[in-house]
Specification:
22-stranded antiparallel barrel, mainly beta, five-stranded mixed beta sheet, 801 residues, globular, single chain
């Protein structure tokens, strides 16, 4: 009860401070500064800044510090006043200031506040933060106590994020209906396949998910629909601290995930490490019925996957101006899959056939990251050098056995070995030219090298229709990118803007069996611009423009067969060229007394669009060849609406709606097809507070009809129920979740091209999840007060790749 009273008093104090005293006749002054703590020298976010009268100590006005600890209080009257900085667990900072016509703008520079350890004993502060925040160039979804009950891994909670969809069978991710999206962890790309990456990250390790739908020139320009950045918690507590997470998901089969996150910080060193595992069996099934030929394909797939993560790193704070950091990730994956494709011809035109598929796939990813940051004399003036090296190797052995059918194609095996290297070297420079303007610039070099070695014991038809041994193939793909960028921004009273440009020189070489298959070389300029208008604290408007590129991915250019069934085979196209996208986006944010609403619209113009091409096999028109090709210019547009609101003390919710419309062009059979696809999604997450320790959640999702070149996908929806219980003074939590309680998730479709066909695919969506998380260590006091802090994470320390 005592803790609750203190919390209510604190929130009430903040509410009072946000109100201004009676209006003075003349308000001409501004006071600004930046607040940091005395131990870690890090910014103190959301601290209360209070301006009081020197005469009677009454409150004149106030505000809070931003994420970087900075603040600016405007419309101050002339005369002497008292400035106070207040934050739970710290001594109140007081300073006398004076505003006059000769000194209207007062910059206090760096303000250091001291920790008051005694005041922290026995105090618990749980920040009540918005789940969805609209920032200048991104939408930030804070994964707090409501969303952590949604699943065991990042893949499980991604469908809860506005504008994001994850294919539960393939793991492919889309943003605003487009799969051309980059996924990063703490601002860094990984060589690990995205589906595997999302399965490895525990949901409890995620601090927030950033949707950067119109990135500035500072970011790499890949990804038509933008960037999804997963930001992980970073433990900077003094002493030895750790977190252990365990989770069990039970569907038809069981899936287990565990992680141990350890951190030790003392003085100038911060050392951290992580061990994580994700082990599970997965079952999928489906069918496709071809109407005209009266045949049906039945699919059954079973996978047994094991993934292990090891990470270790350290930060060395040489002094106040120099920081050196290093970490390495080691990820090991071992997968074993089996599948059966059963084809039945009900008219008896062809003999029934079965394909038995066995797959053994193992891969290993190694990442080594070095970072050095130099803080110059002026506050915020810095130079940072980062080098990131990533190595990935994969071995896949696949066997295909046939039963029934014509017997023309004998059993065969495919052996695919893949090696991939990525090296990034990045130099960033930041210079706050004045209180209202900032310059950022940088240089970057990126090197990509991929080698795919393919061998097969199978047979294939040559151009004359004669069976020959499948040729062994070696595919080398290299891409070097050199780039430079610069951005400049200024802030005014109600207006701010940022303009930038990025220049990139790209060289691509692709060789097949030591024969040059493809080369490309181009230089492109990628501009960006943002304008923000904030007429009041409650209203914010923004418009932005950018140019981006989608360079063909390895699976899109690799001429080696990716996968096959008796009636479908998939290949890449090494002749693909990049597609370029020009985007314009506008957003409006309205802050309410109990929440906020954000609305946005966007438009994209695409040049040389890359899309699927579906061809009939020249040697057997009953079979299909899937590949990719470039098409004419295209466009798409959409609308998004999201809100978070707290109607009562015991109930809060966030909801979102997104709508998009796009043209799609591609080849299906012998014809070029163009369709107009209009789709929409709706989500709502409700959180109910039963007690201080027990909360419940209800999450609902609905996806409307969606179209591709071949299919029209039917609507799908699901409802999840969750509960979360805290114990051991909030150091431990138990989460319980019932996913897809009505078992309604199903990928069902109706197709017209190149054959009339209908079908559906199913997976283990109806599951039960139980998770346990427990924090331990010596950093209790600092951990408690940091719950109200946004640590502006750049490098995570737990459960990451």
């Amino acid at each position: 009860m005592k803790k609750l009273v203190m919390l209510i008093a604190l929130l009430s104090c903040y509410a009072i401070l946000a109100q201004t005293a009676p209006v003075e006749p003349i308000r001409i002054g501004t006071v600004s500064g930046k607040v940091i703590d005395n131990i870690l020298k890090q910014p103190v976010s959301y601290a209360a800044v209070v301006i009081k009268s020197l005469a009677d100590q009454s409150t004149i006005t106030g505000g809070i510090t931003k994420e970087d600890g900075s603040f600016q209080i405007e419309k101050l009257p002339e005369g002497k006043m008292i400035l106070e900085i207040q934050f739970i667990g710290y001594k109140t900072f007081k300073k006398e200031i004076e505003i006059s016509r000769q000194n209207r703008d007062l910059n206090l520079g760096i303000i250091i506040i001291e920790e008051e350890v005694a005041a922290l004993e026995g105090v618990e502060v749980i920040a009540e933060r918005s789940t969805i925040e609209q920032k200048i160039d991104r939408k930030v979804i804070n994964v707090g106590k409501d969303l952590t009950t949604a699943g065991a891994t990042a893949a499980d909670i991604m469908n809860n994020i506005p504008s994001v969809n994850v294919d539960q069978q393939t793991g492919n991710i889309t943003l605003r209906g487009n799969s051309n999206v980059r996924v990063m962890v703490d601002g860094k790309l990984s060589n690990v396949p995205i589906a595997q990456l999302l399965q490895q990250i525990p949901s409890s390790s995620i601090k927030s998910i950033e949707l950067i739908t119109n990135p500035s020139a500072k970011y790499n320009p890949e990804g038509m629909s933008g960037i999804i950045n997963i930001v992980l918690h970073r433990n900077a507590n003094i002493g030895f601290n750790g977190t252990i997470n365990m989770g069990l998901t039970q569907g038809i089969e069981a899936k287990f995930n565990t992680s141990l996150d350890l951190n030790y910080r003392n003085g100038k060193f911060n050392v951290y490490g992580n061990i994580g595992t994700n082990i599970g069996k997965y079952i999928n099934d489906g069918h496709i019925f071809r109407v005209v030929e009266n045949s049906e394909q039945f699919f059954d797939f079973f996978n047994n996957n094991k993934s292990y993560l090891y990470k270790i790193g350290f930060d060395f704070y040489i002094n106040d101006k120099n920081t050196f950091s290093f970490f390495t990730n080691q990820n090991i994956f071992d997968g074993n899959g089996r599948g059966i494709t059963d084809i039945r011809y009900y008219n008896g035109d062809f003999p029934d056939e079965k394909q038995f598929f066995n797959n053994i796939n193992s891969n290993q990813s190694e990442q080594y990251n070095f970072d050095y940051k130099l803080e110059l004399e002026k506050e915020g003036h810095s130079i940072e050098l980062e080098v990131d090296y990533n190595r990935f190797s994969s071995n896949e052995d696949a066997g295909f056995d046939f039963e029934g059918g014509t017997g023309i194609i004998p059993d065969y095996k495919d052996f695919v070995d893949t090696k991939r290297d990525q090296t990034f070297v990045n130099l960033d420079y930041v210079n706050p030219l004045s209180e209202k303007s900032k310059l950022e610039a940088g240089l970057e070099a990126r090197y990509f090298n991929t080698n795919v070695d393919y061998e097969s014991t199978g047979l294939t038809f040559n151009s004359n229709g004669v069976l020959r041994p499948t040729p062994d193939t070696e595919f080398d793909y290299k891409m070097d990118i050199y780039s430079a960028y610069a951005t400049f921004g200024q802030n005014f009273e109600k207006w701010s803007y940022q303009v930038g440009v990025r220049v990139e020189d790209v060289q691509v070489k692709a060789d097949t069996n030591v024969v040059r298959a493809f080369t490309d070389k181009y230089t492109q300029i990628y501009p960006s611009a943002f304008i923000t208008y904030k007429p009041s604290d409650e209203n914010q408007y923004q418009i932005s423009v950018s140019r981006r590129v989608d360079r063909p991915g390895l699976e899109q250019v690799n001429p080696i067969r990716e996968w096959a069934t008796p009636l479908i085979s998939s290949f890449g196209n090494p002749q693909l060229i990049p597609q370029f996208t020009n985007s314009i986006e506008s957003n409006y944010t309205r802050r309410l007394k109990k929440g906020s609403i954000t609305a946005g619209i966007f438009y994209r113009r695409i040049e040389d669009e890359i899309n699927r091409a579906v061809y009939l096999d020249e040697l057997d028109e009953n079979k299909l060849i899937l590949t990719f090709d470039n098409f004419d210019n295209n466009s798409s547009y959409g609308f998004e609406l999201s809100s978070n609101y707290k109607p009562t003390k015991w109930w809060n919710f966030n909801a979102s709606f997104d709508f998009f419309s796009q043209k799609q062009r591609g080849f299906v059979g012998t014809e070029q097809v163009e369709i107009n696809n209009t789709a929409w999604n709706a989500r709502m997450n409700n959180n109910f507070i039963a007690t201080k320790k027990l909360t419940f959640s209800v999450f609902g999702f609905y996806r409307g009809t969606n179209k591709t070149l071949q299919f029209e996908m039917k609507p799908m929806y699901f409802v999840n129920l969750g509960a979360r219980y805290s114990f051991a003074e909030r150091k431990g939590t138990i989460s319980f979740n019932l996913n897809d309680i009505f078992n309604t998730m199903q990928f069902a479709f109706d197709g017209q091209r190149p054959f009339r066909q209908v079908g559906d695919f199913n997976w283990e969506s109806n599951t039960i999840y139980v998770g346990l998380s427990y924090r331990f260590g010596s950093g209790k006091n600092r951990a408690l007060r940091r719950k109200n802090r946004d640590d502006n994470t750049k490098r995570g320390s737990g459960g990451i790749l």
